[in-house]
User: Fold these one by one.
Assistant:
Number 1:
Amino acid sequence: MSGTLQAVRGMNDILPEHAARWQFVEDGIRSVVEAYGFREIRMPIVEKTELFKRSIGEVTDIVEKEMYTFEDRNGDSLTLRPEGTAGCVRACVEHGLLHNQAQRLWYTGPMFRHERPQKGRYRQFYQIGVEVFGFDGPDIDAELLMMTARIWKALGLQHVSLQLNSLGTSEARARYRDDLVGYLSAQFERLDEDSKRRLATNPLRILDSKNAQVQAVLDAAPSLSDYIDDASKQHFEALCGLLDAADIRYEVNPRLVRGLDYYGRTVFEWVSDRLGAQGTVCAGGRYDALVEFLGGRPTPAVGFAMGLERLVALLESEGAPVPDSAPHLYLVAPGTLAQQQGLLLAERLRDLLPQLRVITHCGGGSFKSQFRKADRSGARYALVLGEEEVQKREAGLKPLRENSEQEMVHFDQLAARLASLFGWA
Ligand code: HAM
């Protein structure tokens, strides 16, 4: 075999230079959801194929053409998870987490869909998702949306807007589907290939079409909002009222239907106009029938998932500053004695200052070459230790990002001096 190996198309490495932004996004979301009482759950990345077929729906794009499905050595059909909701429900039912109790759960990790890769759309991508079980009222829907709004604030994101819709009950949707199919069949020749195909399989998804001509056909189509049952309508109106009271702006979009079959009633998407065609950064809704459908007791449920690649890209496009992950100190210690004492000194500093990021120079070399590496590391200060300094139990502290003098600090004073320099005192 020759040539270098490359990552699988649509599956990205996240390199260290980007990790700080990822961690900022992940930490920001995690701290907000934990403030709302959510607890983490971790599910396997691989599940039985049947789980996704049953929950996401046989005639959805995901199940029809995007799943990474394979037979394992026992002949079982397994699938890399394309999303987290199905596995989360499976885990809750399997472990009895829904017996006489509500749950607020969050999870994160990679998801896999064999889509056509493009900016913001990958074959492996990361989500942070939340799922709430046990509440059927609009209050929890509203609180989830308040929580997402708080997340945008925590991340400093501005260019996102909320689209909201109600899908009503499955009976309401079935009646609507019949009428929509009737209307669109009469307009068949004006539809694009994709919509023609969907007319037979999943007609509601045609509402999502990005094709301008299809959208023009839809302008005169029946509207789902006219078919919604009274209870769902009341639920939706109450939700809108709660959002108004919380000053959360939204647009009701009667064409928002979502690509997974398990939804009913509330559905929503947070969309940005800064990301091109893949502008949805967070999406979710209610799925009150799924728990029972997967073998649990009837349990109302609602949740959402955020796409982390898209949030990171949005932060970049908004010019948010990159969080500082550079080391505070780089220890320059030429010579055997200084090297040995330097390692011990760095350990002591780590004991005393848990926030300190310190790199010790490894691999020897001259003072000059070590100092050059210190500079290249991006560290704020070099800590310089030679044989003479070791004897005197002091080290030189030399600023690397500004032009000022080195100061000598006694080992016993070093932690206090650093704490004051970095504002930790
Ligand atoms: P989804 O709309 O399929 O919903 O995905 C949620 C989010 O994941 C999207 O809005 C997007 O940000 C991101 N995403 C999806 N596909 C890709 C991709 N190929 N590349 C990059 N990012 C992507 C769900 O997955 C539901 N499980 C959400 C949910 C949770 N509903 C209720 N609870």
Number 2:
Amino acid sequence: MKAIGVFPKTKEVRVVEHPEPVLQSPAQAKIKMLEVGVCGTDREICQFQYGTPPVGWDYLIIGHESLGQVVEVSPGVTRVKVGDLVVPTVRRGCPENCISCEQMQQDMCFTGHFTERGIKQAHGYMCEFVVEEEKFLNVLPPELREVGVLLEPLTITEKALMQTFLIQSRLHWECRIDPTGKTTSQKTCRTALIIGAGPVGLLAAFAFCNLHMKTFVVARQKAPNEKAALLAAIGTSYLSTEELTPAQIAERVGPIDLMLEATGAAQVSFEFLGVLGTNGIFIFTGVPALKKDAIPDGNALMRNIVLKNQVVLGTVNAPYEAFQLGIRDLREFLQKWPVPLRSLITARRPFTTFRGSLLGRQPNEIKTVLEFGTAVVTQEPQETVSLSFPGGSP
Ligand code: BGC
């Protein structure tokens, strides 16, 4: 089968002929890949700054934001069936099976010896077929076919929210929402600010608006622009850092309860951390390159963190539960904001044209998706989908 391979030693990225995987154990499914999204991590791997092939291979098949369809299952498989649309998770547990990995919380692996499909020592999804254990597969309802490839980038926010609700249960924090969707008290509904308007930041805006938070997105470019228009359509305000300083933004929006960093830029992130509100939580999700950077006044930051009971949190990868919550949310986004949600995918291209998509950015790009195949089995739409968590509820 064809796959996109990155060769770190010889610094090549090309289509390779890779052995088609076969079912090897009783709980596996074979998946025909339909679409794989391109993200910043893929681009760094293609610039040979990140990413490691599996032991014994001189290339890594990249890609971790995927959507596929099950074409064959082993006899012991019970949760997925031929024809199901599926999105596999990314990280696999460490050989030591540390307490986190043992509990299916590979995203919290203690040893660091985990693998990540398409990133670290495990082949990814930019290929025609994949074989995976069913416990790592998330079944999507058929109506999410056109946006399902956005699930993995959405899980970054889903995990951040899972952690936020857990941490903020230290105080009375949650939005109180009545059945009509209105907040019952302005006092308890939160203000959220997202730093960065890439796919992760924009998907976070959908998630926060869906939770009735007063949501703002800050990015460099001045409005009007396409992203500002998209955000306005879901009820989010867009602010430009070319026009306003972090202090001016804080003054304009009022106390900020939640900041989610989605830029990978340290300088601007620490500037915003300096204007986080009382009892606020600041979440870092970006992975910046290791270059020298001047971080602003540490004393002022430390003083605020203590005197304002603030939390600074880093989060990477996402557990199975975050994928399940993401499926629930994608359905809600699609019902509430179908056009803005679809417009996050700005290009779909055959995988053979990968070079332009992986090695450079397109003007006005949000998410570029590479196509690897078309669905072979059609399904009846289903009305409800239930959340299931191996090992119990989160
Ligand atoms: C992926 C995560 C992964 C992280 C670090 C991100 O792009 O979405 O699954 O853990 O990169 O490798």
